[in-house]
């Protein structure tokens, strides 16, 4: 069996988002002739919360190799990125594993972005080919980057400097969406003939059968309420959608069209220099029915909270290339979904295939704000009362499963190894 070294500094029980990208694909790689070996950092160096429940959803027998890292400074913090704190340890261990295990290929999901540089250095030392998986774009304008000499400004400049170095000898690109790495090809014409494959996060139906220990719903202790849930980060390009959605909710409430039992829960929205969910709720005077928990909860808790919600909000981005990895969690919850995505987002097709687009708004940047507000009002009123029903069909989304993504990755790997 061919061997794939995956360099990713977080692994279960880490609750970092990218861990699920790796875990979902790794669980199925053996089925397609590839033995995955995970190279990661010991969990005692993680800054995010850990969830031991995540150990329940990893296929048994996966080989994992661990390294130490420098501790992130609590008071004097020069850098906190775990890939930087473990950079040279990961590089040395990767070379050691390659010599010992006869690795056929290296695959590095990013972010953390510095793992791509590690792969480049390992490739230079050993000649082992590598591929980069774009979970998010590397070169982009980080929120706050318009402030010269700010940390975000430096991050944007550094990305433009380091990405060309990291991809110099790359063999292929993968990503949760082709739109995340196609701009890389435009910026680097010499790579125009390189292989690539877009493959979504996907889903594993078995995840929904696992219950976390001591499950707590966000609305535990509340009685006689109808909880609507949004789970995930509050993206910089989602602010327009939230602002207009809350404006509509406030209007419906003023017109007595909103059930008084309704509560809107937002979890895992994160912190930012931009306005928060709560800020917009205050702006539109609905803060008493909007509850924001910025901290993330564990993956399994998210699945179970979604499955127990009265309804779900899936709010995308004004950017056409945005694809929501959480869309599969939303659909498989089997709860009614109110969604807003750019009309070109890949999330649209996924919702359509699952017959889960009943209350989907396809955003068009050329439409007027007035027209957009009217569409939100019509769809939201209909959604709250399920006037159009709710009958999703999950048979047509197998093509987006984690197993399908693993097959696609294995096929790309096979083509590169066989051509060596």
Please provide a brief summary of the model:
This protein is an alpha/beta fold. Helices cover 35% and strands 16% of the residues.
Protein described:
The chain is an alpha/beta fold. It has 13 helices and 13 strands. The chain has a seven-stranded parallel β-sheet, sandwiched between helices. It is globular. The two termini are about 15 Å apart. The relative contact order is 0.12. The model has no long low-confidence stretch (mean pLDDT about 90).
Q: Which strand order does the major sheet show?
A: 3-2-1-4-5-6-7
- C-alpha termini separation: 16 Å
How many alpha or pi helices? Answer: 13
| Shape, principal axes of CA atoms | globular
| Multimer state | single chain
Strand content range: 15-25%
Main β sheet profile: 7 strands, parallel
Nearest-angstrom radius of gyration? 22 Å
Helix amount: 25-40%
Task: Tell me how many strands there are.
Answer: 13
Class per helix and strand makeup: alpha/beta
Q: What's the average pLDDT? A: 91
What is the N-to-C order of secondary-structure elements (H for helix, E for strand)? EHEEHHEHEHEHEEHEHEHEHEHEHH
Spans of at least 5 consecutive residues whose pLDDT stays below 50 are: none
Throw out a few tags for this protein.
420 residues; single chain; 7-stranded parallel beta sheet; 6-stranded parallel beta sheet; alpha/beta
Describe the secondary structure blueprint for this structure.
Blueprint: E1 2-7, H1 17-29, E2 34-41, E3 63-67, H2 82-85, H3 87-101, E4 105-110, H4 114-126, E5 130-134, H5 151-166, E6 172-175, H6 182-187, E7 195-198, E8 226-231, H7 239-254, E9 262-267, H8 277-283, E10 290-293, H9 299-308, E11 311-315, H10 327-332, E12 337-342, H11 346-353, E13 360-363, H12 369-385, H13 402-417
Parallel strand pairs: 1-2, 1-4, 2-3, 4-5, 5-6, 6-7, 8-9, 8-11, 9-10, 11-12, 12-13
Helix pairs in contact: 1-13, 3-4, 4-5, 7-12
């Amino acid at each position: 069996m061919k061997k794939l070294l995956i360099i990713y500094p977080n692994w279960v029980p880490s609750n970092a988002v990218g861990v699920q990208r790796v875990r979902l694909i790794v669980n199925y790689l053996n089925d397609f002739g590839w033995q995955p070996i995970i190279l990661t950092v010991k969990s005692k160096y993680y800054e995010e919360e850990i969830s031991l429940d995540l150990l329940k959803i990893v296929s048994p027998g996966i080989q994992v190799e661990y390294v130490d890292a420098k501790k992130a400074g609590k008071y004097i913090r020069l850098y906190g990125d775990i890939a930087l704190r473990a950079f040279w340890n990961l590089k040395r261990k990767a070379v050691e594993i390659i010599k010992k295990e006869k690795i056929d290929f290296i695959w590095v999901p990013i972010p953390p972005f510095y793992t791509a540089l590690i792969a480049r250095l390992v490739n230079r030392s050993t000649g082992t080919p590598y591929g980069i998986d774009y979970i998010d774009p590397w070169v982009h304008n980080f929120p706050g980057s318009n402030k010269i000499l700010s940390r975000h400004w430096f991050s944007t400049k550094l990305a433009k400097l380091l990405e060309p170095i990291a991809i110099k000898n790359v063999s292929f690109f993968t990503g949760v969406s082709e739109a995340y790495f196609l701009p890389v090809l435009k910026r680097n014409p010499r790579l125009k003939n390189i292989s690539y494959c877009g493959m979504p996060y996907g889903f594993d139906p078995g995840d929904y059968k696992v219950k976390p220990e001591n499950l707590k719903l966000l609305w535990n202790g509340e009685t006689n309420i109808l909880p609507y849930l949004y789970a995930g980060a509050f993206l910089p390009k989602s602010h327009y959608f939230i602002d207009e959605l809350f404006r509509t909710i406030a209007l419906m409430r003023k017109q007595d069209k909103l059930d008084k039992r309704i509560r809107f829960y937002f979890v895992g929205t994160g912190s930012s220099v931009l306005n928060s969910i709560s800020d917009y709720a205050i702006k539109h005077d609905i803060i008493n029915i909007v509850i924001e928990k910025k901290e993330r909860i564990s993956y399994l808790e998210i699945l179970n909270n979604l499955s127990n919600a009265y309804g779900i909000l899936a709010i995308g981005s004004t950017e056409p290339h945005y694809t929501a990895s959480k869309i599969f969690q939303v659909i498989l919850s089997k709860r009614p979904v109110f969604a807003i995505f750019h009309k070109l987002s890949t999330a649209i097709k996924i919702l359509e295939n699952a017959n889960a687009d009943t209350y989907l708004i396809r955003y068009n940047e050329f439409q007027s704000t007035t027209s957009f507000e009217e569409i939100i009002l019509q769809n939201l009123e209909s959604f709250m009362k399920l006037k159009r029903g709710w009958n999703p069909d999950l048979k047509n989304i197998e093509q987006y499963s984690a197993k399908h993504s693993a097959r696609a990755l294995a096929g790309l790997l096979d083509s590169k190894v066989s051509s060596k």
